[in-house]
Description:
mainly alpha
Amino acid sequence: MMTIEDAQNRVDQWIKEYGVRYFDIKTNMIVLTEEVGEMARVIARKYGEQSAKKDEILDLEDEIADVLWVLICIANQSNIDLTKALEKTINKKTIRDSQRHKNNSKIL
Ligand SMILES: [Mg+2]
C-alpha cells in the first residue's frame, strides 16, 4: 500500500532517474491545467452530454492519476508535505463545514 509520503518519494525518485529535473513550477502549473482539462473531457463524454469521438479512449483513472502526478510534482518542488497539508485541510473543513452540508436542503 502506497502512502502519500511514499507517492511523493516515488515521484521524486522518478524525476531524478528519468525526468532529469522538475519542470519549473509555472510549466507544471500549465501541465496541471492541461491534465485537469483531459480529466474534464473524459467526464463530459462519460457522464455529461457529450459523446465520444470515434476510437476515443475515455480512461478516468488514467487522467486522475495524471492530475495527481503533476500535483505531487508541484508539492515536491515547493517542499510541501502533502500528508500534513491534507490533514490541515481535513481539519479546516471539519471546523468550517461540519454542519454546513447537513443543513443544505439542496442535497438532502
Ligand atoms: Mg492526461
